[in-house]
Design goal:
44% helix, alpha+beta, Rossmann fold, 641 residues, 14% strand, globular, Glutamine Phosphoribosylpyrophosphate, subunit 1, domain 1, 6-stranded antiparallel sheet
Length: 641
């Protein structure tokens, strides 16, 4: 795992500013503490920060071909690099190292853009081909590794693994994108291809960008891989086939020249990874954390680890979520509202004390329908198909609008969300289940200037477009497909990458092997949702390898219980949300912010989620230059001395 950065001036014959490049690399040093490397030539410069995992002696980067005409800076792991190496050697290529990086370098010369189709792994890289005059930026199929880029004031292009690498460039606009603020408040993250800064873009998963010498225009990124959009016939022995596929994916990710472990909770996904690693003859060190007052899975994890033969490490972590909210901007480079980032960072810190690489169970919920919202979406869709749209909109929608919002009532009385979802069409109904702050609530918190700036923007539109690309008779696949392009790369994988890289830990999720993902998504819904429970086929696949109690255990959250903490410390929350960072930004209405805190403190409403998102945003804004908010700030800004 590493960090990459670079500068490209397509019409220049001069060396780029290498001092600037070193500053970009320094901002990314946490991702690669084991070394750094640089390459510079006319109009181009690459930087690399290395976390050494494979070929510790010979894998230094940037890596160049023998003649220096092709240069690569790469972040990630290519799990099939040995098979690619054999194929390339048969074509006459001669390798100088054992590094997976070199397989990409030779693969480009042999197959051009076709090399992307052959790579099995997680990656973000930049490759310069001097003879062709082309700079290729590429990102893996699921979005496990990040890559950001920006147009420079002088017409050049810069790229970096994280936003912070680009913010090290003086003169690059820091202006806040108002639609990104709207997206963040709605979803808890800024979805690709945007970032919180209007000038900085994120290369979407499964896309590449090809820049050419002499051309100053940045073309639109192009997709090289497509997830299934229709359901295939069910395999004859689906559970058995899944077990074989997942075993192969796990074994491929055991490739390492440094200590390797795994995250282990009491849940099915991480337990499956640990069990299959042990079955492959590699019982791994495992890592679990617990939080006071939250679901504590340390005991269950310890029992499974003892059964599998690995050394188990567990800690109880007592964190301050309000203080943690202020740290998210520094970790993620922009507002990131998933509160489970706090325990994820804690378990990464624990793991890094013992290993350099950890396997995770991420992806199982998205691929095999583990989220509760998938079951609700299936049920709501069944009702929609039974009741005409006119009646749903007028009658059920009317009831939903009149029904009180009973946040503190027993679950069976909190029907407003369900009624609202049923009254809407399929895409808008599903968007309602993933939306963290409803449109009316968001707009009510915004200043007039921000409302004007986001007028016409609808965070739900991307969900409607994505779900519209799938078979309309497969509502579960539609929801999974939407998550695969939004929630998975924007929330889950961003969370794992930034928190692990903050402590220089590499994380590998075997369930996100792209062939396994394509196979799993295309399974019929009955193999994923069965008897009111998700992951049906995964449970069948793991029955021979895991104890029955793991199979029966319900899914638990991985986050602190925020509601009571924010209620107990409402005074601190109010001070933060009505402090200078928020009010000087010009983005919010002070009275509306105060009312939100008051309602939560009263106990009649549960606003924990929006309050956490706002606290995270406050922490981010406290570190933003006021000039980035010049279009919104209501107060005169002091001039720098």
């Amino acid at each position: 795992m590493c960090a990459i950065a670079g500068l490209f001036h397509p019409t220049s014959t001069r060396l780029p500013d290498t001092g600037l490049l070193r500053g970009m690399a320094h901002a990314l040093r946490h991702r690669g503490p084991d070394g750094e490397g640089f390459w510079a030539e006319a109009g181009l410069a690459f930087a690399h920060r290395r976390l050494a995992i494979v070929d510790l002696a010979g894998g230094a980067q940037p890596m160049a071909s023998d003649d220096g005409a092709v240069v690569l800076t790469f972040n990630g792991e290519i799990y099939n690099h040995l098979a690619l190496r054999r194929e390339l050697e048969a074509l006459g290529h001669r390798f100088q190292t054992r590094s997976d990086t070199e397989a990409i370098l030779h693969g480009w010369r042999a197959w051009g853009l076709g090399v992307l189709d052959r790579l099995n792994g997680m990656f973000a890289f930049a490759l310069w081909d001097r003879d062709r005059g082309q700079l290729l930026l590429a990102r893996d199929r699921l979005g496990e590794k990040p890559l950001h880029y920006a147009r420079l004031p002088d017409g050049g292009v810069a790229f970096a693994s994280e936003i912070g690498g680009l913010l090290a460039i003086p003169g690059l606009s820091r202006a806040i994108d108002p639609t990104a603020v709207d997206d963040y408040l709605a979803l808890g993250y800024v979805p690709d291809p945007n970032t919180i800064h209007a000038a900085i873009k994120r290369l979407p998963a499964a896309h590449f960008l090809l820049l050419r010498r002499g051309e100053t225009r940045i073309p639109a990124p192009l997709r090289y891989w497509q997830a299934p959009r229709a359901v295939a016939a069910a395999p004859a022995q689906a559970a058995e086939e899944l077990a074989e596929r997942l075993q192969a994916a796990v074994e491929a990710r055991l490739m390492s020249d440094v200590p390797l472990g795994c995250f282990l909770s009491g849940g099915l996904d991480s337990s499956a990874i640990a069990a299959l690693s042990a079955r492959a003859g590699h019982p791994l060190d495992s890592f679990t954390i617990g939080f006071p007052g939250a679901a504590d899975e340390r005991a269950e994890a310890a029992m499974l680890a003892a059964r599998l033969g690995g050394t188990h490490h567990a800690e109880m972590v007592d964190s301050d979520p309000i203080a943690a909210a202020r740290q998210q901007g520094a970790i993620f480079g922009e507002p990131f509202g998933d509160p489970s980032a706090v325990p994820t960072l804690a378990v990464c810190r624990l793991a890094r004390k013992h290993v350099t690489v950890a396997l995770s169970g991420d992806g199982g919920d998205e691929i095999f329908a583990g989220y509760r919202r998938y079951r609700w979406h299936q049920m709501a869709e069944a009702v929609r198909r039974f009741i005409p749209a006119r009646i749903r909109g007028s009658v059920i929608g009317g009831v939903a609008r009149a029904y009180p919002k009973l946040d503190r009532a027993p679950r069976w009385l909190r029907a407003k969300t369900t009624l609202t979802e049923i009254s809407l069409d399929s895409a808008m109904g599903y968007y309602g289940t993933v939306c963290r702050m409803a449109d009316r609530q968001r707009r009510g918190l915004m200043s007039r200037a921000l409302r004007t700036a986001v007028d016409g923007h609808d965070p739900a539109a991307r969900f409607a477009a994505l779900m519209g690309e799938c078979d309309p008779d497969e509502p579960l696949l539609q929801a999974q497909y939407a998550d695969l392009h939004t929630y998975l790369p924007g929330d889950i994988l961003t969370k794992v990458d930034r928190t692990s890289m903050a402590v220089s830990l590499e994380v590998r999720p075997p369930l996100l092997d792209h062939d396994l993902v394509a196979w799993g998504l295309a399974l019929p819904a009955s193999l994923k949702l069965h008897g009111g429970q998700g992951k049906h086929v995964l449970r069948g696949a793991m029955t021979p390898f895991l104890p029955a109690e793991v199979m029966r255990r319900p899914k638990r959250g991985f986050a602190n219980p925020l509601g009571q903490v924010l209620r107990t410390h409402a005074g601190v929350v109010r001070d933060r949300l009505l402090g200078d960072a928020m009010l000087d930004s010009g983005l919010f209405d002070a009275a509306a912010l105060g009312l939100l805190v008051d309602q939560h403190e009263s106990g009649r409403f549960d606003h924990a989620q929006p309050l956490w998102h706002l606290l995270v945003l406050e922490g981010f804004l406290s570190g933003v230059d006021r000039a980035a908010l010049a279009g919104f700030a209501p107060r005169p800004m002091a001039l720098a001395g």
